[in-house]
Structure formats: structure tokens, C-alpha cells
Amino acid sequence: MQRMQPGALTLNGFLGSDTRPLNEIIDDDAKVLARLHYSQEDVAARMEYFFRISWETFLGDELVDGKYEVQTDVFRGKLPCPYGHVGLYRKAITSVTNSTNGISVIWTPLNIHMIRDHGFFEGKGSAFRLEPDILVRAIFE
Amino acid sequence: MLATIFKDIAVLTALSGLLAVILVLAERIFNNYGQCKIGINGKREIEVKGGNNLLASLGEKQIFLPSACGGRGSCGACKCKVTQGGGPLLPTEKPFLSQAELADGIRLSCQVKVKSDLAIQIPDSIFNIRKFAATVAEIVDYTYDIKGITFKLISGETVDFKAGQYVQLLTEPYAKMKQRVSRAYSISSKPEDRDSLQLIIRLVPEGICTTWVHNYLKVGDKVSFTGPYGDFYLRDTQADIFFVAGGSGKAPIKSMLEHLQVVGTTRRMSYFFGARGLRDLYLTEEMFSFEKVFSDFSYIPVLSHAAPEDNWTGRTGYVMPYFQERLRDPANSEAYLCGSPGMIDAVIKGLTALGVPKDKIYFDSFG
Known about the structure:
The complex is a heterodimer. Chain A is α+β, with helices and mostly antiparallel strands.
């Protein structure tokens, strides 16, 4: 898709160095999620939960549920979804570190939307690519 | 056999050429809307060639509505009231318009195609917006991810703006970026510097414009921008002032303070700069120097996560608990906030709880 390419919406686009077709990227990640017994809605809802809590603290780290260090950094502006439907998503980066297993992940509000509504975790090598298994371990363990 | 192949290729080429000619003719016939008149505010009329969108048509006549997405229908910034013509509302516009705006005839100008005469209403301030050409005069590294860039206007041009307003910087193609984008940045220099202006720009991961600024822009490069925009500006009153802004949000506050230094003021002012750690502080000396310039000014940096090696002995945590130190007459106080929506919401709550009138709290939100 044109809007996923470098320069269309972001510097390096959403597909990274992945050579698989888009539907294959999505299907492969869906299989990983299914194996882990989580749905894309489960994952997105959990990401949204952390984002909402840290949104209100601005600047600070928030220790959520006693073990998740969460912080959201906000930048000026908004981004549309590369799928081309209407809607704008804040430029913000949420970072979560699970102090139990040491896994850290980062995501943007656009990531949450793309996972929830498109099952898209971005292509491998993309700046904000989320590996489903690592993400699940970071936010659910 | 070869002759047959060549003959087939020739036929296909001829057919393609014929189709192309038909398409061009069709474009000229069916997309020819002729000259269209656009009435503006009932006072002015411009004539444009029909067929383009309203945003671009106005831009051709040097009337620049704000747009962060270059007219691609993804930012919702280019709203204007269409009182006559404009065609039906498009599905691409609806998500950006409230019920009140829809009822009031507000449209996204980048989605309105000019096919016939139409009439619009736009704020008078839009006529103040111009397109400027400038060269990069100076680039300063303020922190690990924030730069200050000074642009010198070319050919004796000058820019008029109010301290607090912003411009839209237009990128040039670079590396893999073939298309230009425009992004909004608050002006950080004082309005009195009419032949130049400074922007404070923070690098956004994967950002097209900020990557260009941080990694490609050099002194001497030519740039263009439109402006000034925005209704976040310093009000001319005698009320005490609370400034609250962190990171690149310092830009409009710097402009306001430098402006006040020129015009002079005896207003009681306080600037609360919230940051995570020592490496996020910048222009600290200049801000503290204002304490000697103004009769009653305090610069109050507050770090939420100072590292031990920062050896920070200043205030820690969030900025709100420190407002009380400088609060004198809440009913006669104003606030100017610039930063994330979360910060702005929290500070508004804090200030109104202290008695500062909500309608005297002005803000420029990042989101």
C-alpha cells in the first residue's frame, strides 16, 4: 500500500525491511497471537489501558499494578492511519517495562489502532514493529 | 512471426496513444469549470480557475488557510465556512466536523472542489498570513533532541506576528522523501526581529519534517514557510502571569518574554519549566537572566526524574505544587501553557483550583 511506504506518512513507513505481502504479515502475526490465546482486541485493550494511565501523569513514570513502569512522551501533531480511513492519532510514544521479566516495549497510539482494527503489528524492521509474542509477555505476564 | 509481433506492438502503441488523447480531451471538456468567483467575507472577491480544491485555489491567490497535511484531508486544520456553493458535504470531511460546525456550514477547504462560484467566510487574521522565503542563518543544539534554528527572510521581507503564534514550515525533498510536508512550529524569537525568526524544534522519532531539520538542514539552505497562525498570544493586560511549558513548548514562552523585555513590563511573572532530567534543561541561563531584567520574574525549573549524577538541588516532582509560591492575586492572574494535552489538563485543574479564572488560561496544546 502506498501510504505504508517511506515518506508517505512517516520517515521509514510501516513495512520496514519485510518482503512479505501485507496480508501475510498480518496472518503470520495472527497465528502467533492465536497460539498465545490472545486476540488483537485483548492486546489493544491492554495497550490502551497503560496508555491512558500514563497519559495523565505526563513527564513521570507511572508504576502500574506494582510492576509495569509506564511512560508516555508526547509530541506535537497527529498522524492518519496508513489504511487511509478517516481518523487522526496523537504523536506519542508509550514505553512499558515489565519489571518481572525485564521486557521493554514501545508503541504509539497508531500502533494500538492498527492492532485493534487491522491486526497489523507493522512489518519486521519497522521502527515501531511489535513482535506479538514479546508484546504479550511484556504487558500480560 | 517477428513481423506479426512488431505489428501487434505498433497497434497496441497506437491504441494506447489514442486512449491517452481521449483522456486528455475528456479532462479538458468535462473538468473544465472555467473561471469561478470566490466571495470572501462579503467584502472581497477573487477569481480562480475552477477544478482545484478550495485550499489550493485560495493559496494561489496568496490566501493561506492552515494545513498540516498539505491538503490530503488528514489533519482537519483547513476549515472554513462556506455560505454559498461548494457542493455536498463529503464523507471525508464529516469526522473532522462537530455537529455545531456542520450546522454552521463549516467545510474542509481541501475537500471542497471549486466547480462554480462560491462564497466563504474566513477570519480576518487569515489575510495576515503570507508565504515567506528564508535562508537558514543559525542552527544551535539546545539538547540531545532539541535544536534552535534561525531563519533570515530574503529580499528585505519582514514578518509581523504576535508573540506566541506559530508558522508552518515546508520541507524540501530529501533522501527518500519526494513529497513536501508542512508542520507547525511556534515562533521562539521576538516579534521585534521582523526580518528573521527562530523556531525550536524537537526531533520526533520517524518524523519527516523534524528528521529533515535535525539531520539534513544546513546553514545557508533555503526554506519556505507560511504564517503567522494561531490565537495563542500574549494578552495586553496588567495581570500576573503564569507560564507553564516544557520541552519545545518553551518556544512561544521565549518569544513572549523577549517581547516583554523590549516593550517593558512590571507584571509579576513566573515561568515553570517541567522536565524529566538535567539533560532536558536548556536556555537556562537566558531564562534566569530575565530575573535581572524584569522587576518581578521567577524562572522555576522542576525535574521529575533527576538522576543522582545530575546533582540536582532544585525543585523536584511536578510543577503544580509550586504555583502557590508565586500566587498573589488569583482573580487577577493569567496563564499561558504550551505542551501535551495531559500537562495542560492537569495544570488547568491546578490553577483553577487556586482561583485563576479558566477563561484567563490560554494554551497551545500539542495534541
